[in-house]
Amino acid sequence: MKKLITLLIFIAINFGAIAQHIQVENTAYQLLLKTLLSHSVPEMSVNELTKKNNTVLLLDAREPKEYQISHLKDAKLVGYEKLDLSSLKNTPKNQPIVVYCSVGYRSEKVAEKLLQQGFTNVHNLYGGIFEWKNQNQALVNEKGITDEVHAYDKTWGIWLKKGKKVYK
Questions:
Q1: Does residue 143 register a pLDDT over 70?
Q2: If you average pLDDT over residues 26-46, what whole number do you get?
Q3: Which of 5, 46, 49, 128 maximizes the CB count within 10 A of its CB?
Q4: How far apart are CA 76 and CA 122, in angstroms?
Q5: Which residues are CB-neighbours of 82 under 8 A, at least 6 positions away?
Q6: Is the dihedral of CA 39, 43, 46, 48 positive or negative?
């Protein structure tokens, strides 16, 4: 019985430590992100980004078909498979930049490349566009505000809890 109580206390303490640092609303999603990402670049939560207004440069590290479905307002598409950073050639190296993708993996890799190129104020949007939408933030496409989100595929789409999932 003492071992069981000790185990339960250990689990409660560790769960409490995780819960205090949650940057996404879903605990299971948080655990996935903790292991999926290498946390090699500074991360920014959705809440923090919403407070930045128009002071950051948003870069979308998804593919063009994903970007066309929806993206964060004023975000520039840089891609991932065919990464194109040419639009940043006149960008000051200290410009605040937030990179995002579906969940944060691809954007983390792009953010690493930006840091290697001398950019000094780069963040990865923790939880990506999925968490952005899960927290009821607006997305746009060429027609204006949209509820659609490219959910990448059905495996990754389970983490998108709000909005209309698109898989094309």
A1: yes
A2: 94
A3: 128
A4: 15
A5: none
A6: positive
Structure tokens at 133: 């939408």
The whole model's pTM is what? 0.86
Q: Do 62 and 106 contact (CB within 8 A), yes or no?
A: yes
First to last CA, the chain: 54
134 CB neighbour count, 10 Å cutoff: 21
pLDDT band at residue 25 under the 50/70/90 scheme:
confident
CA distance 21 to 31: 11
- Across the range 136-157, mean pLDDT stands at 97
CA 78-79-80 angle, to 5 degrees, is: 130
